[in-house]
Design goal:
The complex is a heterodimer of chains A (about 200) and B (about 525).
Chain A (H helix, E strand, L loop, with lengths): L8 E9 L4 H15 L3 E6 L9 E9 L13 E4 L2 H7 L8 E5 L12 E3 L1 H7 L6 H13 L4 H11 L5 H26 L8
Parallel strand pairs in A: 1-4, 4-5, 5-6
Antiparallel strand pairs in A: 1-3, 2-3
Chain B lengths: L5 E6 L2 H11 L8 E6 L7 H9 L4 E7 L9 H18 L7 E6 L4 H18 L14 H4 L2 H7 L10 H5 L1 H4 L6 H10 L5 H4 L10 H5 L6 H15 L11 H8 L25 E4 L3 H7 L9 H13 L5 E2 L8 H5 L3 H17 L4 E4 L2 H13 L7 E4 H10 L3 E3 L6 E3 L9 H4 L1 H9 L27 H16 L4 E4 L2 H11 L5 H4 L2 E4 H8 E3 L1
Parallel strand pairs in B: 1-2, 1-3, 3-4, 5-6, 5-7, 7-8, 10-11, 11-12
Antiparallel strand pairs in B: 9-13
Helix pairs in contact in B: 1-4, 2-13, 3-14, 6-12, 15-25, 19-21, 22-23
The chains are: A alpha/beta (about 200), B alpha/beta (about 525).
Bound molecules: iron/sulfur cluster (3 copies).
The site of one iron/sulfur cluster has 10 residues of chain B, from helix 23.
């Protein structure tokens, strides 16, 4: 059986608009896989006019084997943090691929199954909108399982500005727990339990 | 042979006549039986029935007249209810219900009475001695209670500036009662043991703490009153100020019996998941006793709060342990001045919890919360675990996301709990949770948060006409919000406020649905 977690190659596109820390998010994913989980990883970043406000993307491949070619056409995992990025990439996502979105910024097509989290709003509540990308990484770690928690935390702490490690870890944990909770909620719903039994 | 003690309360009319006829026949009454002649079985309260057990009785029979032959009409009917309620409570304490029986005889049913006496004695012997230890009035030693001077110093009451802010904010004084915290402080400073303030008023204070929030000198009035009560109790006693004939104090004292094996959890619904090995313990509190005591009068259902808390923990995949032999936390004994028995309960509970290796105790009762989290420690009983209020647990879980609420069909208002408000960290929590459920269906009462009006009675002490008047004012405030659901967070608020709704003259203007926040959450929460 090939579960996304066990596939030995994962192709990921993280996308949003410039200034959201999209590239950093991609780098953290790749770094966690390479340094923490001892896998191979590559990162390709789209620069250009996009990095100043337009759609912007990081392509990350995580693999057990050597990666020959770093560009991605059809990702297994698409992380969207803006509507324009969603519109641009959604058709590329593999049919059984996983879509993750910022709930307040992306309105996916009705029939599209997706995991959403109000990452930007949560970051604002934590006091720093900037950390939405870190919350998203936490969420991705929980939902998609492409990197391990420990590796992810390690990569987060070593990538964020010094002095903000604690805050960022807190943001990561929020996203991670939200993700676990989402999975749990889905499992409960699937088993027919929605509310508390009376 | 063990020395059994059996008490017969004999109604003066039918029952006593039969008993006399039995003696006239030369019948030797079994030596374990002592009789108390009473005017009518309807005059015996739950408090008196229970008191007999508290004082060491192994069995109690209330012997009255057949229904319909009661000289006063309704005596036997009241006795049936009282006896039933008390029997249920005995069962919660792990005693066989049949240790307490109500039997009725016509004056000429001499054989029937004899047979009953024989049978009852046999039955009690077959149950063995009662596990309730007679609780003597274990007054704390004078030196432990401290002196007025020490108490005054400990609570900075010498710093009282005589400004009167306390009296002008005290809800009891505002209701019109001749009652003044400032005057109490004054009387204690003057050391006048016989003053009205010390004989009467210290038992009326609700220990709600509104005055403390206002006092410029930071006199912690509730704690001050708590100490003064213990001191007064060590000299004399304050029992005459207890509500419901002291039933609850008596019940709570009885739980200090080390041999007692309570049976308060056996009636949980089957779907509730518990785990004996969990490091998280759910501490229930006295709800089952309250509900049984009031079931024929107020019909309160505070036990729902416990069941709903457990179900919510289960909803979030936590199956906690419960303390099989849980005792009262001791809150009401502490606050009615009985420090000795409070400490006994504290030590018993803590020893049992420690034995289970518990790391965290979750409770839904603000009084249990305060007592476990603060007062055990304050009186030198070390607590080796973290104490969490169910709202803290829920907020933490809900904050993780992926759950949502089906908004209730009701418009809500919220009754603050004074014990919860003594913790800064908890004050805003109920409101935060209500906002999560539905921010648009919530309206505050005129007095809320720090200066909220309390439910009018505390620690089953000092309930009087002014308590009622206060409750009526509070219910009016609730009705003025236009809401139709009063959300509460303390079982006592439910009990005392619903009591005021029973008022035959004003009841309909005051009636309102009351539900604990835990139950509101249980009914509305769902996975996203
Ligand atoms: S508010 Fe404080 S200082 Fe003022 S009279 Fe009351 S106890 Fe004394
Ligand atoms: S604690 Fe409450 S009832 Fe007691 S004096 Fe202060 S305000 Fe009045
Ligand atoms: S308010 Fe009612 S229930 Fe509460 S103590 Fe007074 S009489 Fe009892």
């Amino acid at each position: 059986m090939t579960n996304t977690n066990e596939k030995n190659r994962q192709e990921i596109i993280v996308t949003g608009f410039g200034g959201q820390g999209i590239i950093l998010a991609g780098r953290i994913l790749g770094q966690a896989a390479a340094l923490g989980d001892s896998k191979e990883s590559t990162l390709v970043q789209s620069y250009g006019p996009e990095s100043r406000g337009g759609a912007c993307a990081a392509q990350v491949i995580i693999s057990e084997d050597i990666i020959q070619y770093p560009y991605i056409k059809t990702p297994d995992l698409l992380v969207c943090m803006s509507q324009s990025a969603y519109d641009k990439y959604i058709d590329e996502l593999k049919p059984d691929g996983i879509l993750l979105t910022d709930q307040d910024l992306v309105k996916p097509a009705e029939d599209r199954d997706c995991f959403s989290i109000p990452a930007t709003r949560m970051a604002e509540e934590l006091g720093r909108k900037m950390m939405a990308n870190i919350i998203m990484i936490g969420f991705t770690t929980a939902v998609a399982g492409v990197i391990s928690v420990d590796a992810a935390k390690e990569a987060v702490t070593s990538s964020v500005p010094r002095g903000t490690e604690k805050m960022n870890l807190q943001a990561f944990t929020k996203g991670y727990e939200y993700g676990l909770s989402k999975l749990k909620g889905r499992a409960k719903k699937a088993s027919g339990q929605t509310g508390v039994m009376a | 042979m063990e020395n059994y003690k059996i008490i017969l309360f004999l109604c003066n009319w039918g029952a006593h006549t039969a008993y006399q006829a039995l003696q006239d026949q030369g019948y030797r009454v079994p030596p374990e039986i002592s009789t108390v002649r009473i005017p009518c079985t309807g005059r015996i309260s739950k408090a008196l029935l229970f008191k007999a057990f508290e004082m060491g009785a192994d069995g109690v029979a209330l012997v009255g007249c057949k229904p319909g032959t009661c000289r006063y009409g309704v005596g036997t009917n009241s006795a049936i209810n009282f006896t039933d309620d008390t029997r249920e409570i005995l069962a919660f304490l792990g005693l066989d219900k049949d240790r307490l029986q109500l039997v009725t005889f016509l004056p000429d049913e001499v054989d029937g009475l004899r047979n009953f006496l024989e049978m009852f004695c046999d039955e009690i012997r077959s149950f063995g001695k009662s596990s309730l230890m007679p609780t003597h009035k274990d007054l704390i030693k004078d030196d432990q209670a401290g002196t007025f001077a020490e108490i005054l110093a400990a609570h900075n009451a010498y710093g009282c500036q005589d400004c009167g802010k306390c009296t002008s904010s005290c809800p009891l004084a505002l209701t019109g009662k001749q009652f003044s915290p400032r005057a109490i402080a004054g009387a204690v400073i003057a050391g006048d043991m016989n003053s009205k303030e010390i004989v009467e008023d210290i038992w009326s204070c609700l220990t709600c703490g509104i005055c403390y929030a206002r006092c410029p000198s930071g006199v912690n009035f509730p704690d001050f009153i708590c100490d003064i009560r213990a001191l007064v109790k060590s000299k004399d006693d304050g029992d005459s100020h207890q509500a419901h004939g002291g039933f609850f104090q008596s019940l709570m004292r009885s739980m200090t019996s080390p041999e007692m094996k309570t049976d308060r959890w056996s009636r949980l619904p089957k779907d509730v998941k518990l785990d004996d090995k969990s490091k998280i313990l759910f501490f229930g509190g006295c709800a089952p006793y309250f509900d049984t005591f009031f079931r024929n009068h107020l019909g309160v259902r505070t036990t729902d709060v416990l069941v709903d808390s457990l179900r919510l923990m289960n909803f979030f995949d936590v199956a906690p342990a419960v303390l099989k032999n849980e005792r009262c936390c001791g809150h009401d004994l502490l606050w009615s001045g009985d420090r000795e028995n409070f400490l006994k309960l504290a030590r018993l509970n803590i020893a049992m919890i420690a034995e289970m290796g518990i790391e965290e105790v979750v409770t839904a009762c603000p009084e249990c919360y305060r007592t476990l989290a603060m007062d055990y420690q304050r009186f030198g009983v070390d607590v080796g675990f973290k104490v969490t209020h169910i709202y803290e647990f829920l907020e933490q879980e809900i904050d993780k996301g992926a759950v949502t609420f089906n908004p209730p069909e009701k418009a809500m208002t919220f009754q603050d709990s004074c014990r919860m408000n003594s913790f800064d960290a908890l004050k805003d929590l109920p409101r935060k949770l209500i906002n999560r459920i539905s921010p648009n269906q919530f309206e505050e009462m005129k007095d809320h948060k720090d200066v909220s009006m309390c439910c009018g009675s505390s620690a089953w002490t000092g309930c009087d006409a002014y308590s009622k008047a206060m409750q009526v004012n509070r219910l009016r405030q609730a009705r003025e919000t236009g809401s139709n659901l009063m959300v509460t967070s303390c079982p006592k608020c439910q009990i005392h406020l619903q009591c005021a709704m029973e008022d035959p003259f004003q009841g309909n203007d005051l009636k309102m649905e009351v539900m604990d926040l835990t139950s509101v959450i249980r009914q509305t929460i769902c996975w996203e």
